[in-house]
Amino acid sequence: MKPLQIAIDGPSGAGKSTMAKILSKRLGIMYLDTGAMYRALALKAIRSGIDTHDREKISSLLHDSDISIEFEDGNQKVLLDGEDVSDKIRTDEVSMGASAVSAIPDVRLMLVELQQNIASDNPVVMDGRDIGTHVLPNAQVKIFLTASASERALRRYNEQREKGILSKSLEELEKEIEIRDHNDSNRSESPLRQAEDAILLDTSNLTIEESVEKILEIVKAKGFSDAL
Question: Which region, left, alpha or beta, applies to residue 10 given φ > 0 means left and ψ of -120 to 50 means alpha?
Fold first, then answer.
């Protein structure tokens, strides 16, 4: 029997990573933030002064980059050419850049292969934009996590304010989210969409804990009660 695979997809700011991390700890399995890999490449492009929409230069940059994931005490570390960039990839600029580089076929091909190799040998919770539709099409549990654009913008606004890195208004953040939703949903390579067998979970009016409990109920209903 293959390892348990939980695929969580959804738009930017829906809380996928936060809930996936909590789930991995509750279930005692690995968490893999696939978006972090694209963010790392976007960070390198920005540092190098390369347009994140330039397919040829981004593909070349990826071939000259070493992007890897390490796990330390259950926590994921993102390494870019040996540098821990786990915190540096969480800016709005990098977020928008990641949306652009993730639409490049060569980039997706290489990073998806890495993600699939990790999941083939380990029980995993994986989140991203096309996990259930493309990366792990045979995952036993698929969740499509969403929330209204206004709610997602408010969450990001509050998070950045608490961290003291707030640089944009709530309206600007909501506009960026809407742009990214459009880009992710309309890209030619593995667009953001709900898999036919994924369960839709709208968290607009749910707390993080309530959302996690809903997902755990889905895992149990799928016949994985032993994992709880």
Answer: left
Mean pLDDT of the chain: 92
**Do the Cβ atoms of 85 and 78 come closer than 8 Å?**
yes
Task: Report d(CA 1, CA 223) in Å as an integer.
Answer: 13
pLDDT at 228: 60
Q: Where are the alpha helices (DSSP H) in the chain?
A: 16-27, 34-48, 55-63, 92-101, 105-121, 149-163, 170-186, 208-221
Helix (H) or strand (E) holding 87: none
What are 111's two structure tokens?
């990073």
Instruction: Identify the H or E element spanning 79.
Output: strand 75-80
* Domains, in order of start, for the chain: 5-221 (3.40.50.300)
Which residue's entry shows tokens 């990001």?
A: 156
| Nearest by Cα to 128 from 28, 38, 27, 26 | 38
Q: In sequence order, which residues have a C-beta less than 8 Å from that of residue 211 and are 6 or more positions away?
A: 15, 19, 145, 201, 203
pLDDT value of position 217:
95
Tens of pLDDT along 108-158? 899 999 899 889 988 999 998 889 999 999 999 999 999 999 999 999 999
Count Cβ atoms within 10 A of the Cβ of residue 143 and give its class: 0-12 exposed, 13-18 middle, 19 or more buried. Answer: buried
Give the residue from 156, 154, 91, 119 showing the smallest Cα distance to 30: 119
- Measured in degrees and rounded to the nearest 5, phi and psi for residue 2 equal -70, 155
